[in-house]
Design a protein that fits this description.
This protein is of the alpha+beta class. The chain has 16 helices and four strands. The two termini are 39 Å apart.
Length: 396
């Protein structure tokens, strides 16, 4: 045996050296926690990493909307209705050479004699200075601190927060001369907050009813499952219309926001409840659950401490995939005129501005909030797919 080993070493050019790096990595994997294994697998999913990064950026926009938006959402200029987007130039050529000085070209207004309408033409001879970290319209940062600093904006603001005196429309203007970029940023806050709060309420309802259905079974399970089947059998749009019509027309915008959130939550809990029920049916006969019951744990403690953590990763993935559905539902409701209404600014409300074919033909940039919806929904779906794959770190 010893001679055979020496012969192998001579043929290999020397004594065999163990691969310490590989053995160390394997040892780390063997002692790694479930969450660490999930994170390692999640990092290998490139689309999920991209989706997670975009999702973080979107929620940063939600938190700092006032800082990022050049103007308040209701600021307008009656002279610049349907003004086209102005390209942002970062460098200006002067007598001293090329220097960093952001600006946009102004407009020259002409009258189309054939159509008898006003037309905007970008005037390259006119330059409107654009500044970074400029002081402008005051606001409450995070709803707590007084501030007036904006990431980007014109060099001069009007003291009246509802007026725009210097046109700076990076994404164009709407029918009232309001900045589409600023309104899209503010719409991000409403749409994403509604999606997050709606999913949270659906989570509570779905987890509670799904858990009760799967844990107890019998007539309780049958009753809850029949209710789920009834809700899922009704066509979505008529159900939305019926529930939205039940909201009083004299409600304030805040009340309408809360009402739409609860409305979407009452519809969106059925899918999660089915998932939770299936997992509870599989877990309630496991040995560790029977051991917990025999040890004197109450039903609530058994569910909270032993059953839910056993598939927490699946719940997280399901919740991430449910947020896009909430966002799309709110957008569809507001687009149909059944959801949020002005002066609330959401992606659905903004897209309602583009509901008119004539408006789209005149100002196609009104469809830009739809691009924000598509990017956000895709990012959340990629993130949810990655979390769903990472929930099974031992799978392929």
């Amino acid at each position: 045996m010893l001679n055979d080993r020496k012969q192998v070493e001579r043929e290999a050019g020397g004594p065999a050296v163990p691969n310490n790096s590989r053995s160390t990595e394997e040892a780390r994997v063997l002692v790694a926690s479930q969450w660490l294994l999930m994170w390692r697998k999640f990092r290998k999913h490139r689309l999920a990493m991209v989706g997670g990064t975009i999702t973080i950026v979107v929620y940063l926009v939600v938190l700092f909307a006032e800082f990022l938006a050049p103007f308040p959402s209701n600021a307008f200029s009656s002279q610049h209705t349907y003004a086209p987007p102005q390209p942002l130039h970062l460098f200006d050529r002067t007598a001293e050479g090329l220097r960093f000085s952001p600006y946009v070209n102004g407009y020259s207004i002409t009258i189309n004699q054939a159509a008898l309408k006003r037309e905007f033409v970008v005037d390259k001879a006119s330059k409107v200075p654009v500044r970074l970290f400029v002081h402008g319209t005051p606001y409450k940062l995070l709803g707590l601190f007084d501030a007036d600093l904006h990431l980007i904006g014109p060099s001069v603001y009007d003291e009246d927060p509802t007026r725009i005196i210097i046109p700076m429309y990076l994404l164009g203007a709407d029918r009232l001369g309001r900045d589409v970029l600023s309104r899209t940023i503010y719409g991000t806050r409403i749409s994403m907050t509604l999606g997050l709060v709606g999913v949270a309420l659906s989570f509570v309802i779905g987890l509670t009813l799904g858990g009760v259905s799967g844990f107890y079974g019998g007539w309780v399970d049958n009753t809850i499952q029949r209710v789920i089947e009834l809700l899922r059998s009704i066509p979505t749009i008529p159900l939305w219309m019926g529930l939205a019509a039940a909201l009083p027309s004299d409600w304030t915008p805040l009340q309408v926001f809360l009402g739409i959130t609860i409305l979407l939550s009452l519809i969106g809990w059925t899918g999660l409840a089915r998932v939770v029920r299936g997992r509870f049916l599989a877990l309630r006969t496991e040995d560790f659950i029977l051991s917990a019951r025999l040890d004197g744990n109450s039903t609530a403690r058994t569910i909270r401490v032993h059953m839910i953590p056993a598939f927490a990763s699946h719940i997280i993935a399901s919740l991430t995939l449910a947020i896009p559905s909430m966002i799309l539902s709110e957008t569809a409701l507001s687009f149909l005129g059944l959801g949020l209404r002005p002066p609330i600014v959401s992606w659905g409300v903004l897209l309602k501005e583009a509901q008119n074919i004539r408006a789209v033909a005149t100002a196609p940039w009104l469809l830009l909030p739809g691009i924000a919806v598509i990017i956000t929904v895709l990012a959340l779906n990629f993130l949810g797919d990655g979390l769903r794959d990472a929930a099974d770190p031992y799978g392929r």
